[in-house]
Amino acid sequence: MRTRRPARRGRRLRPAAFLLMTAVFLVAAAAVGRERVLKPPAALVEIIAPLCVELGEELPLVLAVIQVESRFRENAVSPRGAVGLMQVMPDTAGWVAEQWGLEGYTEDKLLQREWNLTIGMTYLRYLRQQFPESLAQALAAYNAGPSRVRSWQSAGEWDGSESRLEDVPYPETKNYVRRVLKAYASYRKIY
Questions:
Q1: Residue 114 class from Cβ within 10 Å (0-12 exposed, 13-18 middle, 19+ buried)?
Q2: Active site annotation includes 57
Q3: Whole-model pTM?
Q4: One of 46, 69, 74, 172 is an active-site residue; which one?
């Protein structure tokens, strides 16, 4: 009597498993590439809008920065120490408060919504004035620091334009600027 060999199902399942895994990967990769525009809390927009008018910033841009920085989480703290909605570094916040005479500022206030927004928007406006040629430059400076952006430009690594964003040496900054610009375009349509 002949013994039957067990069926080799492993070979038959492998192509199906491979196709399934490939499909899952492609869907995940497509989802990561898209920046989903979040609906900001209405109460937060009611606070941000008048501050934007007062500080001379655009509401859609501020919302885009907040979405990418903290996803509208007021108590967000990054591993590097950036704080609040606009993810401001405490040293930067102290400098902004001193430069613009924001009396009463202390580091513990950085997690308070109004202080965080005021300091973050003031700093963003300052960077836009420092880099008037391109919003991409100002956003890169918000993420990596203005001295780094200037060094990239002086070294000829990046000309500061949105069209040459691929030349930004820091992948994190390159991705950050892309995401903010994409969210900014979406919020401009909404607001």
A1: exposed
A2: no
A3: 0.81
A4: 69
